Recover the amino acids of this structure.
């Protein structure tokens, strides 16, 4: 009886071991299968993501990522192919194998500054005429589009702000965005050209799509001269890319899709080198010069930036303002900041006239050094 019990235990143990081994064997076979699939995927040739430019069944014209176009075959499995579709192509002969869902090339919000500014008109000094002009061209069409419908005219699509650095061009753009409660989308032309070689035109298209999705909106293109300089005979690939990006900008301004509640503000320090195409009628045809402030303008700007500052009552403000002759708004702001630092270094809570005069001297010297030829001070 005892022997039978031992035999039963041994048989049960063997049965259990067999069951465990079979389960382990099944898991190993599954793992082996997954590994073989992974190896096959690693050995397979990658497919190229391309854009369809035109369809002429059973062929298509596609554009590959470097910008070149090819006339290729379409696989029989691909149905309802249309211009603008994104497709996967075999690398050797570029045959279109299948469509993939259209998606943006970029998460474009990562490449622009996008916000709703809180700059008010009263925060800007010395630019009374410029404020009235930009209100007329940008603010009025966004706030009262019915006026233009009644008169039967189309409002301007945008303006060009030009003038020396630091005179308040960006402030004007932000103030009009704030007054119209518009989304403010800021692009720097030089960065667009330098960072996105080969892709600038597509990014411009997506920026305008983003602006339409978030309308009313204002696209502010800083350093537009880097993108829209006078065209020359293009030679290098970089020059060709700048031209493609510029042409895409013009196409978006003129495009089939109306801009509607999207306005464009270009900004440059070098109006003289701009391509006439960007400022012809129907594009950025309103030109607003933003100059260095005059005597009254300097006083207005200084009053705005110094309104919370604790000044010594004996300061000769007229003398201080006269010492800032030729300063732009950004330099006047810098003077206020530097004067505050001089007071802090003296461990005082009151800013004196010598603090202001030393600050003016420092800012002027820094500007002179910045404008000097390379090597003069090195």
């Amino acid at each position: 009886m005892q022997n039978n019990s031992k035999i039963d235990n041994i048989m049960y143990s063997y049965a259990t071991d067999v069951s465990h081994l079979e389960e382990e064997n099944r898991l190993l076979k599954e793992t082996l299968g997954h590994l073989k699939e992974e190896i096959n995927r690693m050995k397979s040739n990658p497919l190229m993501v391309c854009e369809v430019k035109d369809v002429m069944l059973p062929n298509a014209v596609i554009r590959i990522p470097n910008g070149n176009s090819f006339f290729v075959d379409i696989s029989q499995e691909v149905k309802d192919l249309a211009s603008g579709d994104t497709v996967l192509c075999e690398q050797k002969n570029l045959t279109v194998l299948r469509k993939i869902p259209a998606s943006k090339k970029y998460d474009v919000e990562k490449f622009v500054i996008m916000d709703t500014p809180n700059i008010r008109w009263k925060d800007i000094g010395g630019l009374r005429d410029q404020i009235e002009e930009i209100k007329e061209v940008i603010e009025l069409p966004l706030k009262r589009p019915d006026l233009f419908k009644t008169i039967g005219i189309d409002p301007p699509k945008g303006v060009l702000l030009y003038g020396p650095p630091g005179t308040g061009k960006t402030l004007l753009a932000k103030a009009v965005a704030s007054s119209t409660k518009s989304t403010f989308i800021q692009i720097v032309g030089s960065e667009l050209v330098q960072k996105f070689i080969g892709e600038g035109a597509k990014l411009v298209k997506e920026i305008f799509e983003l602006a339409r999705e978030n309308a009313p909106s204002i696209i502010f293109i800083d350093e537009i001269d880097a993108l829209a300089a006078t065209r020359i005979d293009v030679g290098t690939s970089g020059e060709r890319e700048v031209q493609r990006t510029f042409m895409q900008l013009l196409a978006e301004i003129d495009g089939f899709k109306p801009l509607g509640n999207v306005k464009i503000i270009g900004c440059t320090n070098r109006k003289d080198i701009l391509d006439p195409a960007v400022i012809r009628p129907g594009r950025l045809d309103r030109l607003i010069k933003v100059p260095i402030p005059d005597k009254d303008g300097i006083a207005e700007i200084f009053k705005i930036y110094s309104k919370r500052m604790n000044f010594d009552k004996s300061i000769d403000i007229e003398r201080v303002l006269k010492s800032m002759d030729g300063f732009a708004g950004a330099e006047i702001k810098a003077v206020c900041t530097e004067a505050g630092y001089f007071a802090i270094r003296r461990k005082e809570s009151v800013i004196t006239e010598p603090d202001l005069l030393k600050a003016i001297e420092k800012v002027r010297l820094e500007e002179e050094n910045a404008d000097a030829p390379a090597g003069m001070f090195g």
